[in-house]
Amino acid sequence: MRITDVETMILRRPDVRDIGDSSQDILLVRVLTDEGLVGIGEADTSPEVGRAIIDAPLSHEVCRGLRGVVVGHDPFERGALWRAMYRATLFYGRSGAALQAMSAIDLALWDLMGKAVGRPVYQLLGGACQPRIRAYASLLMPDEPAETEALVAEHVAGGFSAVKLGWGGLGRGLRHDEALVAAARSAAGDRAVMIDMANRAWDSGDFRATEKLAHMLADHDVYWLEEPFAPDDYASYARFRVPGLRIATGEEESSPGGFDRLMETGGVDVVQPDPSRAGGLTGCLRVAERAESLGLALAPHAWSSPIVRAAALHLCVATPHALMLEFSQHASPMERLFDTGLELRDGFVAPTDRPGLGVEVDLEAARAFSV
Q1: pLDDT at site 330
Q2: Tens digit of pLDDT for each residue in 36-89?
Q3: Would you give the DSSP letter of residue 370?
Q4: Domains identified in the chain, total number
Q5: 364 in any annotated domain
Q6: Considering the entire predicted model, what is its pTM?
Q7: Residues 6+ positions from 193 with CB-CB distance below 8 Å
Q8: Final residue in a domain of this structure, among 71, 95, 119
Q9: How far apart are CA 181 and CA 19, in angstroms?
């Protein structure tokens, strides 16, 4: 089997807003083969930037577009192709958009391999260490406490045993933040509540203010605080300690070296690589193995579409130290384009036996969102 082409498709909802929601557009990638099998993947990046990286012509040996690297090769050369893509983008890559574009192709290669042998991807990753994984409802924080309480109660009633709230109404002052958190805790009962303060805590630039915020969260029994500092602020992570509160981060990271530094510097309890940003499942598997060796938990970031959610599930099931699966509950009209067959049962999600990633895409319906 040989790769014959890499097709890109930009999908975008018509009402994109300036909010913390990366599900508003999608760079969908399809890797075609001479045997008729097609692998699908996605990159959580600026879609036009990702498409340019895939489509770019040869400039020189370490400055090439990704399509030219993989076409003509066997998808089962997945590891060699990952290294070839990484080397081909050395001049302009090594992190960021280049790794994000690589992620889409890598996910499509795993999907292809699974389809070729008739097995789900988690089996190709080494088999199920966990038959199912706890799922958490991932939500944007409402503006007011009453709205927050109602939203959390709705998702607890829907079967989730954990809820994460971020961005949105957070960051208007410690008193207002505490009112929102208290409302979430009241509605959640004994279920886990996580808080993502990235867009607010970074902006303050005030280590002590972030400490004060974290102590407030610990007082409300928040399970983890996500991204209290900028992605490259390793020094702050290393010195940050709040008893009873886990620190989670990693969704903004993409490079292998960046993850190594993040995990080895200290201060991080839960590592969150995103399969559509961090070099696909190949990149995330490397992070997962290093995290395990350092005694850190894994909870992949997986917001943008059902493709990355399915990929994160396969990774979690194949990883013994995976804590939870992010299950975005922010309504997007593009959700209906994808069929994963995944079901929430008693707060957990298990992979299906579909080959590959197990995601089917309605390309006809997708044309309504195609740019």
Answers
A1: 78
A2: 999 999 999 999 999 999 999 999 999 999 999 999 999 999 999 999 999 999
A3: B
A4: 2
A5: no
A6: 0.97
A7: 152, 162, 163, 164, 165, 181, 184, 185, 220, 221, 222, 223
A8: 119
A9: 20
What are the C-alpha distances in Å from 107 to residues 136, 212, 216, 282, 330? 23, 40, 39, 8, 23
280 Cβ contact list (under 8 Å, min separation 6): 41, 82, 102, 103, 104, 105, 106, 107, 109, 110, 311
Give yes or no: residues 91 and 235 share one domain. no
Angle between helices 145-157 and 174-188 (to 10 degrees): 30
Q: Is residue 368 situated within a structural domain?
A: no
Domain CATH for 39: 3.30.390.10
Is 369 among the domain residues?
Answer: no
Within-domain flag for 362: no
- pLDDT at position 200: 57
Give the CA radius of gyration of the chain.
Answer: 20
Confidence at residue 203, expressed as pLDDT on a 0 to 100 scale: 62
Instruction: Give the structural domain span for 183.
Output: 124-357
> Within 13 Å of residue 227, how many CA atoms lie on the same side as its CB?
21
98/166 same-domain check: no
On whether both 89 and 152 belong to a single domain, the answer is no
Nearest CA among 326, 177, 313 for reference residue 251: 326
Tell me if 197 sits within 8 A of 213, measured CB to CB: yes
Can you list the alpha helix ranges (DSSP code H) found in the chain?
A: 47-55, 66-70, 78-88, 96-117, 121-124, 145-157, 174-188, 198-204, 207-219, 234-239, 256-265, 280-293, 306-317, 363-366
